[in-house]
From TrEMBL:
<feature type="region of interest" description="Disordered">
    <location>
        <begin position="1054"/>
        <end position="1224"/>
    </location>
</feature>
<dbReference type="InterPro" id="IPR020839">
    <property type="entry name" value="SCD"/>
</dbReference>
<keyword id="KW-0158">Chromosome</keyword>
<dbReference type="InterPro" id="IPR013721">
    <property type="entry name" value="STAG"/>
</dbReference>
<keyword id="KW-0131">Cell cycle</keyword>
<feature type="compositionally biased region" description="Basic and acidic residues">
    <location>
        <begin position="1126"/>
        <end position="1137"/>
    </location>
</feature>
<feature type="compositionally biased region" description="Basic and acidic residues">
    <location>
        <begin position="1199"/>
        <end position="1214"/>
    </location>
</feature>
<feature type="domain" description="SCD">
    <location>
        <begin position="313"/>
        <end position="398"/>
    </location>
</feature>
<dbReference type="InterPro" id="IPR056396">
    <property type="entry name" value="HEAT_SCC3-SA"/>
</dbReference>
<feature type="compositionally biased region" description="Low complexity">
    <location>
        <begin position="11"/>
        <end position="32"/>
    </location>
</feature>
<comment type="subunit">
    <text>Part of the cohesin complex which is composed of a heterodimer between a SMC1 protein (SMC1A or SMC1B) and SMC3, which are attached via their hinge domain, and RAD21 which link them at their heads, and one STAG protein.</text>
</comment>
<dbReference type="InterPro" id="IPR011989">
    <property type="entry name" value="ARM-like"/>
</dbReference>
<dbReference type="Pfam" id="PF24571">
    <property type="entry name" value="HEAT_SCC3-SA"/>
</dbReference>
<feature type="compositionally biased region" description="Polar residues">
    <location>
        <begin position="1095"/>
        <end position="1113"/>
    </location>
</feature>
<comment type="function">
    <text>Component of cohesin complex, a complex required for the cohesion of sister chromatids after DNA replication. The cohesin complex apparently forms a large proteinaceous ring within which sister chromatids can be trapped. At anaphase, the complex is cleaved and dissociates from chromatin, allowing sister chromatids to segregate.</text>
</comment>
<feature type="region of interest" description="Disordered">
    <location>
        <begin position="1"/>
        <end position="102"/>
    </location>
</feature>
<dbReference type="Pfam" id="PF21581">
    <property type="entry name" value="SCD"/>
</dbReference>
Length: 1224
């Protein structure tokens, strides 16, 4: 064989410098990798073998009379070469001359032939002519890279590997950046699996002789090493996968050789131990000869594995492409599991430890899975003590990984360490995992729940005798209560129950034990008050989980239950009902005085199969429950317990139940009692001049009970509208009604109107008298609520605002839709005064103060809770006002009072305002754009009134510009649809800027002229023809003004004029304004015209990291500057998801992005703009949303023509291939 290939294999660790491609820079990276690898790999990395008795070369190996007869192949082939099928000078087969007909590639892609059959056929070809067979295999790998180039026999004989790869790189002229391994469709995923299987089967079939013939493996490893060092990503990715799978197969072969060697040694020792008379000399010589042959095979396979490891793995495990790094880590884990004797050493484990700090999810995930395989066995875990002590801190910290799937696997890894590595994890390490049972991601919470159960809650860990099941469950519940109370991590037991459901579900469904624990009366055996409260919550949460299967709020939507799951839930509902029907009255009787325990106990009725009360002849228990429910309502006035009682009573009054009459009777009696008491108290209040505190408290409690019941039950027959209206009228006239009485009275009137509306027929059968009566009630009540908006008590005015917004929405224009035209007389539209008062209420009580995170963090816990509650109330008020705008109750221009606070109050109300912006845009784009402009004009006018004409350097003016920039992002999508609206924004904005004349003195500018700088934020969204139109309109407007214009343009006018210039001339325009401003937001191109209009539309705000390099040959460009250095290691985050800024890179371009710039200065300016684009989190959210929508609707660009010099065409193929250890 040519000596060049032996040299490449023996020096594989330094062969990376011989790869093809100009500007490769891999040799220094390879040199740098040597010190990092620490001590060299072991001298004998034995590996495992697959099927020891299989292989198409097995019979040939048996027929040979030497140690390795195949070594004589270069001088004397075993069989004659296969005659050429077609005459040719290069000696290549048709499959190698035409890549489209590559037999192996097409067969693997079609997946119609078994891989073993393909390899057997290829092996026959190789035995007839090994060069032809080898080239067929090589061209299979080249074709799998997506390259249509061919390695011919002439190239193979006359060129070095680096020269062959250079020619293949030059022929890599694909039109797409995709290659087989980068595609994720089902056929190509199947091809990837077939590709990996073929590599493994080739080594398996050749494991007895051919892999030792000093030609096949040496030449293949040399070529794959060169390809893996190429800067063409397709070459590097495909060859690395092939080399790693080749290494895995060789590890299996090495393991088989090691096993054969051990067996041979045992046979030799057994034969040698026999006496001289019984010892067979010939057998000993045969065993010695076999051992010598196995030793040589082991040394040779070790040399091959060392060549692959040092030539490919050591360089590619830190490749810039995360998929390549993930492949290396995945295969390294397989080597360690298969052949632990050789690979389970610190020399190899360090790579897993280092890569735990990788920035990419898939790489960290493969590292963790590889470690799971090692810690999954107690034998291998015993060899990892040093690794555990070195990297345990990192592994424990990864439970807070920002990627939930990585964190899930890390928790599973810690469970294996806890199981198989004794005392490796301390209590402090375990306490880092426990809080994860409360996270929002259910998979992570379930994994943490399993860890918690195995570590703390499993009652079988208790030493001594094995208790009964009931005893075990008692121990489990006591341990669970202790953990929940002592940890003080959360207040809602439903999340803990959901986390433990998969591993401790049968114990959590033991409702008999829970009810028995709650009903125990012996103080020594009973539970404390806090424990009883928590156990009641666990009981209710487990009942909900068993009967409905829904996760708690915030843990994502529950999946649709299958028929089998629905059957199981129905069975659990029946079992729960039979179990708790006798116990529930006793529990309510014991805890009826405690609202925190009575409320969740009443919730259990929602999960009962209430028909069992009738079918099981359990009416006695139903009567007891109804009696306890009535007693709870009479005892308590808290909203939570009253709402729970109202829902339970509503379930028991369901007309479909056979015993619903009993519930109706209790409801009627309860309503009669409450209403009679209310009438008496109202009469006293209206007659007396003042009431004492007891009377006020009694009346407030009665009204609160009535209002809560009114919410769930129709109490209109009790005629509560008139007395409640009298109370409200008395409060408006005199202000003598206490707030705690007036708030529930307003709620009762509101519910009365809604129940009366619901009883009207939709088919027009309602009498005119009913409609007039209801219309009169609505208008009078709205008038009273309007008067209450200015009340001094915040509870009254907030309740009035909420009720008023709800009524205007219900009785708005949409009331007559869906066949309800007969209800037209009931439509109520707010007048201008009411609209103005509603908007003023928002200004005074919603947009009055914004609390920063620092203020909330520095405040006391009680103050922080009050701030959060207040924020929730204000959000409800704002949402009610926005709904009136969205449903066309209020004019769209009224939204300007909301939109102008978008930036300032983004942290508090950003989601509500953003949704309002999106919804109103669909109503009327023209009016919506005018509303955006109106909000900016209002802010500008307010600022001029406060600070005078010199505002350009003011912080408030910069905030207005920032708000305009945010608004401009909303015009990025559907440019043609938004074109007219955007033109009107500029036109009306110019009119507003020149609306106010300058003050006395000819040198002063118009008062509103700085608004042009605000308007310039919308200029990047204009198309090029529209920019010319707006510029002409601006010049015309300036000429029409009656005041003189100075020779030097005003800065604001110059800035706006510069923003309207074409992109090529933007650098030549004078100063665009001396006031500081943020750079324009980057945007993706939207259509053919806009991509030539403004370069800011051509920039993506979310560049992938690291950027994929296209293998397509595209237009010439200047070499891009190197990417910025990577940031610190780490991938952790808090329990709550955290946003991260996208890292901007100006290195290799993304596939599908092409440069249309022919000027070096333009290219440089675009790079400068990219480097300056640092946005706050709010803007990044908007851009991410817009980018996602844009990527769905934007058609792909046609590729540019390629008429360039060869060396320029190659530049797009290359990227940086080595990722330094400091980047991981």
């Amino acid at each position: 064989m040519p000596p060049r290939r032996l040299a490449c294999v023996q020096g594989a660790s330094s062969s990376s410098g011989s790869s093809a491609g100009p500007g490769t820079g891999s040799s220094p990276a390879g040199a740098r990798s040597e010190p990092r690898s620490g001590s060299p790999p072991p001298d004998s990395p034995d590996a495992s073998s697959g099927d020891a008795d299989s292989g198409s070369d097995f019979e040939d190996a048996l027929r040979k009379h030497g140690k390795r007869g195949a070594r004589a192949a270069p001088a004397r082939p075993l069989v004659p070469k296969r005659p050429r099928r077609e005459p040719g000078t290069d000696g290549s087969s048709p499959a190698t001359r035409n890549p489209e007909q590559n037999t192996l590639f097409e067969a693997v892609r079609s997946a119609k032939t078994a891989t073993e059959t393909l390899v057997d056929d290829w092996l026959e070809t190789y035995k007839r002519d090994r060069e032809t067979g080898f080239l067929e295999l090589v061209n299979f790998f080249i074709r799998s890279c997506g390259c249509r180039g061919v390695v011919t026999l002439e190239m193979f004989r006359n060129l070095q590997n680096s020269e062959i790869i250079q020619q293949l790189t030059e022929q890599f002229d694909e039109d797409s950046a995709e290659y087989p391994l980068s595609l994720s469709t089902q056929p190509w995923r199947r091809f990837r699996a077939g590709f990996c299987e073929l590599v493994a089967v080739v080594v398996q079939r050749c494991q007895y002789s051919i892999i030792y013939d000093e030609f096949l493996m040496d030449s293949l490893i040399s070529l794959l090493t060169g390809l893996s060092d190429s800067q063409v990503r397709a070459f590097r990715h495909t060859s690395t996968l092939a080399a790693m799978k080749l290494m895995t197969a060789m590890v299996n072969v090495a393991l088989g050789v090691s096993l054969h060697k051990e067996n041979n040694q045992r046979q030799y020792e057994a034969e040698r131990s026999k006496g001289p008379g019984r010892r067979a000399t010939e057998k000993l010589e045969a065993l010695l000869e076999k051992r010598q042959e196995l030793q040589e095979q082991q040394e040779e396979i070790e040399n091959m594995m060392n060549a692959v490891f040092k030539g490919v793995f050591v360089h590619r495990y830190r490749d810039v492409v995360p998929e390549i790094r993930a492949i290396c880590m995945e295969e390294l884990g397989k080597w360690m599991r298969s052949y632990a004797a050789s690979f389970l050493t610190d020399s190899y484990l360090k790579y897993l430890g280092w890569t735990l700090h990788d920035k990419q999810r898939e790489v960290r995930l493969q590292c963790v899975k590889a470690l799971q395989g090692l810690y999954g066995s107690r034998d291998t875990a015993a060899h990892l003590e040093l690794f555990t002590s070195r990297f345990k801190t990192r592994m424990v910290s990864m439970v807070l990984d920002k990627e939930p799937d990585v964190a899930v696997e890390v928790v599973k890894l810690l469970m294996l360490i806890l199981k198989n590595a004794d005392e490796a994890l301390t209590d402090e390490d375990c306490r880092s995992v426990y809080p994860l049972v409360y996270v929002s991601n259910r998979a992570l919470a379930a994994a943490a729940g399993q860890f918690l159960y195995g570590r703390l809650l499993d009652p079988r860990q208790e030493a001594g005798k094995e208790p009964s099941r009931d005893g075990e469950n008692r121990i489990f519940f006591r341990l669970l209560l202790d953990f929940f109370i002592e940890s003080e991590l959360h207040e809602h037991a439903a999340y803990l129950v959901d986390s433990l459901w998969d591993c401790a579900g049968p114990r959590l469904r033991d409702w008999e034990t829970m009810s028995a624990l709650l009903l125990e009366k012996t103080p020594a055996e009973g539970l404390a008050d806090r424990q009883e409260k928590v156990l009641v919550e666990i009981l209710v949460a487990s009942a909900c989980q068993a009967t409905e299967g829904l996760p708690p709020a915030g843990r994502g939507p529950g999946k649709k239950a299958s028929a089998r799951e629905r059957k199981m839930q129905a069975d659990e509902r029946t079992r729960l009902t039979h179990c708790l029907i006798p116990a529930l009255p006793q529990l309510l009787a014991k805890f009826s005085a405690d609202a925190e325990k009575a409320a969740p106990l009443l919730e259990i009725l929602r999960y009962f199969d209430l028909s069992i009360y009738c079918t099981g002849r359990l009416e006695k228990h139903l009567e007891l429950v109804l009696g306890q429910l009535r007693e709870v309502v009479e005892k308590h006035s808290g909203r939570a317990v009253l709402e729970a009682a109202a829902r339970a009573l509503y379930a028991l009054c369901d007309p479909e139940l056979a015993l619903h009459g009993r519930g109706d009777l209790v409801r009627g009696r309860l309503a009669d009692q409450l209403v009679d008491k209310f009438h008496q108290e109202v009469a006293e209040l209206l007659q007396a001049s003042s009431l004492d505190e007891e009377e006020v408290y009694s009346m407030a409690a009665t009204l609160k009970r009535i209002s809560v019941l009114f919410n769930a039950h129709d109490l209109t027959p009790w005629q509560l509208f008139e007395p409640c209206t009298k109370l409200l009228q008395r409060a408006v006239d005199t202000g003598e009604v206490p707030p705690q009485v007036l708030v529930p009275a307003i709620a009762c009137i509101h519910f009365h109107i809604l129940w009366e509306l619901s009883r009207l027929p939709n088919n027009g059968g309602a009498l005119q008298g009913q409609l007039r009566s209801l219309r009169s009630k609505v208008t009078s009540f709205c008038s009273l609520c309007q008067s209450c908006l200015s009340d001094v008590d915040p509870g009254i005015r907030e309740q009035a605002f909420v009720v008023l917004s709800d009524l205007l929405l219900v009785f708005g224009p949409q009331l007559t839709r869906d066949g309800r035209e007969a209800l037209e007389p009931l439509v109520v539209l707010p007048d201008a005064g009411l609209q103005s008062q509603l908007a003023g209420f928002l200004m005074d009580h919603v947009f009055n103060h914004v609390f920063s995170r620092e203020e909330l963090a520095s405040s006391e816990p009680e103050d922080s809770e009050s701030h959060i509650e207040g924020l929730h109330r204000r959000r409800v008020l704002l949402a009610g006002f926005c709904k009136l705008i969205i449903y066309n109750v209020l004019e769209l221009s009224a939204a300007s009072d909301v939109f102008k606070h978008y930036a300032k109050f983004y942290s508090d109300y950003g989601d509500i305002i953003k949704e309002t912006l999106n919804c109103t845009r669909q109503i009327d784009r023209q009016e919506w754009a005018r509303t955006l402009l109106l909000s900016l004009q209002q802010l500008m006018t307010e600022l001029l009134l406060q600070q005078g004409p010199e505002i350009r350097a003011a912080a408030a003016f910069l905030e207005i510009r920032d708000l305009a920039r945010r608004f401009s992002l909303l015009f990025s999508l559907h440019q043609l649809r938004n074109r007219l609206a955007l033109l009107n924004v500029h036109k009306e904005g110019i009119q507003f800027a020149f609306q106010e004349p300058p003050g006395p003195g000819s040198e002063l500018q118009p008062l509103n002229l700085p608004f042009l700088e605000v308007l310039s934020e919308f200029s990047p969204r204009l198309l090029r023809p529209d920019k010319a139109l707006i510029l002409a309109y601006l010049d015309k407007t300036c000429q029409e003004q009656q005041w003189p214009v100075p020779d030097t343009p005003w800065p604001s006018l110059a800035a706006y004029r510069g923003s309207l210039q074409p992109q090529d001339d933007a650098s030549s325009v004078g100063s665009r304004g001396s006031a500081p401003r943020r750079p324009p937001a980057k945007r993706r191109r939207l259509d053919a015209s806009s991509e030539r209009t403004d370069s800011s539309l051509q920039l993506s705000s979310r560049l992938a990291s690291p950027a994929l390099t296209s293998t397509a040959l595209r237009g010439s460009r200047r070499p891009a500057p190197p990417p910025p250095p990577r940031q610190d290691r780490g991938s952790d985050s808090d329990l709550a998801p955290r946003r991260h800024r996208p890292r901007l890179s100006v290195g290799p371009r993304l596939p599908g992005f092409s440069s249309r710039s022919s000027s070096v200065s333009r290219q440089g300016s675009r790079m400068d703009r990219l480097s300056l684009m640092e946005e706050e989190e709010a803007t990044e959210e908007e851009e991410a949303m817009i980018e996602e929508e844009s990527s769905e609707e934007e058609p792909p660009e046609p590729p540019e023509p390629r008429r360039l010099r060869q060396q320029d065409r190659l530049r797009d193929l290359f990227d940086s291939t080595i990722l330094g250890i400091e980047d991981i």
